[in-house]
């Protein structure tokens, strides 16, 4: 399938360029203060933007019922655990456990 | 980014220890990548790709959502041009992540920078960005151990899925494995909330991200929401810096901001 090979090549190139260019050109340059401020809020903003649809609309529309979107409800105690422990592993493992137990007991 | 911290980590330089530390820090990512890579492998094989094609995508493209979208588009008979354009838009968000990480990577040589940026994903970015800001930049071998072990998990999951996909079913939901990455994002988000402005930017980005996503901008919602929310954060931040003590949103000019500015200055000196 030569078309697939071409597709892999093209998609890989267009994916790599945005990953590469900023690191290559901004790493040894002094950035203007406004850009530094902007970039300092990028991690928080990216994570929040990534998470929101996953938590509120996992199948494309806002869905908050326990039976159809248990992830939303599990995420509430998981936020609290993350705030209290500030520990990545503790948060991930307890989140997985709570969701698994919830699914088990509610037969989801 | 602080020079003292970098030096301290360099003194304790031990290649094996660094590699191990990097791999351990990748564990939450690996937990998520194995099953999602597996799912991708299964979908790729049902879309008609052989194992080699599926693995090639995971090796060279290495971007979960874009790979899943590509396979879906291949299955529906889209053109190479359409798929390439879609993948470009979906992955454009890495531009911002790369820009954020750039100032921390000045110590790496050009080849190391090229290799490091090749493995920037949402997940590796999330783990690196918080570590860089809080603990400084670890030695290169730790950085690459984290990146490579995550990438290897992704490739392994893909190969297994493409190979076994048709033969056995694997219930990731029973163990909550499908929640590993969202839980990791929650933990990393919470750890980044250092002052009130961070919370504000997070809420704005979440609201915009959800709105853009629901409006059907499933390819660009992350980058659009991020740019707008981070820009709003930057504007409020610089107003706060300029001594606008009347601005309530800026948290009454808490000392945190001046400490932040100090850090920024030190970073500039270093660069």
What is the overall number of helices of chain A? 5
> How many E strands of chain B?
0
Q: Into how many domains do the coordinates of chain B divide?
A: 2
Helix content of chain A: over 70%
Q: Mean pLDDT across all residues of chain A, rounded? A: 93
Calculate Rg of chain B over CA atoms.
20 Å
* Measured distance between first and last alpha carbons of chain A: 41 Å
Q: How would you characterize this protein structure?
A:
The complex is a heterodimer of chains A (108) and B (271). The longest helix of chain A is centred in the N-terminal third of the chain and has 25 residues, at 2-26. In chain A, helix 4 runs antiparallel to helix 5 (88-106). Chain A is mostly helical and 108 residues long. Chain A folds into two domains: 1-29, no CATH class; 31-106, no CATH class. Helix content of chain A is 77%, strand content 0%. The model of chain A has no long low-confidence stretch (mean pLDDT 93). Chain B is an all-alpha fold. Helices cover 74% and strands 0% of the residues of chain B. In chain B, helix 12 runs antiparallel to helix 13. The longest helix of chain B has 25 residues, at 140-164. Residues 1-5 and 246-271 of chain B have low confidence and may be disordered. Classes of the chains: A mainly alpha (108), B mainly alpha (271).
